[in-house]
From TrEMBL:
This is Acetyltransferase. The keyword Transferase applies. Keywords: Transferase. It comes from the Bacteria.
Amino acid sequence: MQIRPLSRDESVPMDLLLLADPSKEKVLAYVEAGACYAAFHEQDVIGVYVLLSLSQQTVEIMNVAVKESYQGKGIGKQLIRHAIAEAKAAGFQTIEIGTGNSSIQQLALYQKCGFRLSSIDRDFFLKHYDEPIFENGIQCMDMVRLSHTFQAD
Ligand code: COA
């Protein structure tokens, strides 16, 4: 598997991006403003993530997704580790990610990759998404924010 940035003239894997974020409008906005990386198995795109700088010091993983038939094989973890390495190499001090209170697997994955809980944006998903979202039998209402700060070398 190869992970690399997509160039501006390559199309983004919208089907995968929508697995992580049901708002096409929001996805298009941060893909345009940020950098989209894709994981390839031969010619197929099987994973994606998007990095967006929030300031000179901080960058956020706005979206991460793995094609359904490839999930559970460690690719999500490789994408998160790749994003962390890219952020560090680009000179950022902190990388952030946000997920839903109901996203149990994602909360586990991000903490396994070194992220720590930093804050909660209460009612984020109620305010910003038209349709109610349920996962693991839990309504997704609050955004849990996590961050990982790099040690000074
Ligand atoms: N509870 C706790 N941990 C779980 C879990 C669960 N129900 N399901 C998986 N995990 C853990 C695994 O244990 C694994 O850690 P390990 O390797 O130490 O065992 C870890 O999650 C990562 O698994 P991995 O195989 O790398 O994940 P993946 O390739 O399936 O990718 C997602 C993870 C979230 C990117 C993928 O499932 C996906 O695309 N989901 C839909 C889009 C999405 O929700 N994106 C995130 C939006 S915030």
